[in-house]
Amino acid sequence: MRTIKLIIFLYLAGIFLLACSDENEVNLPEKIPKVPIPGVDIVKLPVVVHVIHFGQEIGTGPNLSNQRIERQIEILNEDYRRKKGTRGYNEHPDGADSRVEFILAKLNPDLQPFEGINRIDASKVNVVDLGYNQNHYAQYAYWDPDEYINIWTTPLPQNSECLVLGAASGPATDLPGSHLLNLPQDGDAEGILINWIHFGESGIDCHARYGRTLAHEMGHYLGLLHPWGGKDCRHNDYCDDTPAVDKEVFGRFSYNGCNADEIMIGNYMNYSDDDVMDIFTKDQVARIHYVLQHHEGRKTLMTSPALYQKI
After folding, report:
1. Strands 166-168, 271-272: parallel, antiparallel or unpaired by DSSP?
2. For 18-62, how does the pLDDT look when each residue is reduced to its tens digit (9 = 90+)?
3. Distance spanning both ends of the chain, measured CA to CA
4. Bridge partners for 193 per DSSP
5. What 3-state DSSP class applies to 5?
6. What is the value of pTM for the model shown?
7. CA distance 94 to 108
8. DSSP states along 111-172
């Protein structure tokens, strides 16, 4: 009799567990995860790519293919991790691995499974023309910047190739030179704009064809300045290991800047050709780490639910 009762109990318990299970359960940690220590731990940051197009098929024009988007994020990580065997590797004594990695968000704001790519047909949405800035594109889609890095691929015409590359908002901190960043005002959106033509690798006839525009703009988003900063030899990017310059740096060849020091043509924060870019310096990485530790919005990215996925 006891055996029969035990079998019935186990059977009913099994039914109860099945009834209470939820196939949409999210694999979130039971406790609030420990905030990683930038510079010590590998820091992961979630990105959502808002692909704005005008009704083209996926893989055509500004409606970029998944493969191209995924490759762009891979390039971004090669650059920020100074990965050997890639264009992002260098052997410069001042070069640094940021120990920051970017992943396509695994959950949307409703905590539903997501591939990190949000496609919007702009031909079906009416928005106010606010110009080429984050506020304009945020009208199409804008997710909580404390949980996602919003990246908009902008559907500019083909004749914008090599003329308009990208833009980014920067974080307001007490780091010197932060006022030189594009700081959002109250009510402004935060994020990164990349002309679809320059998102990822392509065969276009332009110096910016290997996906380095995003590395540059992500640098601004995480607090980095152009090496010329305030355009004088004293007030530039506040990084001692980036040779001082007092004007914009373009092209692929080094020359002497301030104090007759050779400039760092390969620095991602220049306007250099994509194929020569290969270095973030130790001081630049230290600025990124400071921002991740002290800017409230950037700090919460490190423990965003978008980093986790469904069971």
Report:
1. unpaired
2. 333 344 455 555 555 688 999 999 999 999 999 999 999 999 999
3. 39
4. 152, 167
5. helix
6. 0.89
7. 38
8. S-B--SEEEEEGGG-------SSHHHHHTT----TTT-EEEEEE---GGGTTT--EEE----
